[in-house]
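Try this one yourself first.
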């Protein structure tokens, strides 16, 4: 089983969460690749929130990524203005070989993400439109400066649900 962890991180919080998940999955003797979505230009705080709320697709560097080698995708986004990052939608609108991939979601934020909240719903809708096999697996982490403030106890359970 090869797992691709696709994520966008503006401040490093989502990157830290993605790395933690990769480490935990590798402990299960799985092959894991981190795929960071690279923005053409890092948006400022207010422009990021506005783009997220309006779901304006922002340009990325890594377009046309082939995800065919992955049996499972884990997709992560920060929370901006109560919404997921629009880079997720931008990435998957150009990615190749995503149809039918088992996919789990994680979200980071300065506050504790609501497990049934808008960011999760937005990601689910976007990814469903790209015909992935969306699992019920979800992880919400409250982060600050690359450290988990709340939600760490759910990480192992999330990893097990991916397996």
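Now uncover the answer:
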């Amino acid at each position: 089983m090869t797992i691709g962890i696709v994520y966008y991180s503006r401040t490093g919080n989502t990157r830290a969460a993605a790395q933690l998940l990769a480490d935990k999955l590798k402990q299960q003797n799985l092959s894991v690749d981190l795929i960071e979505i690279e923005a053409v230009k890092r948006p400022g705080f207010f422009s990021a929130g506005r783009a997220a709320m309006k779901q304006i697709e922002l340009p990325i560097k890594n377009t046309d990524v082939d995800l065919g080698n992955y049996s499972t995708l884990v997709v992560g986004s920060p929370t901006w203005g109560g919404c997921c990052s629009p880079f997720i939608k931008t990435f998957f609108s150009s990615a190749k070989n995503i149809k039918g991939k088992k996919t789990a979601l994680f979200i980071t934020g300065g506050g504790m993400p609501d497990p049934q909240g808008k960011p999760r719903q937005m990601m689910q809708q976007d990814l469903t439109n790209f015909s992935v096999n969306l699992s019920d697996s979800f992880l919400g982490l409250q982060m600050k400066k690359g450290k988990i403030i709340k939600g760490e106890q759910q990480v192992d359970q999330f990893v097990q649900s991916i397996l």
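Discussion: The helical segments are 13-26, 45-54, 87-94, 118-129, 155-162. The two ends are 9 Å apart (CA to CA).
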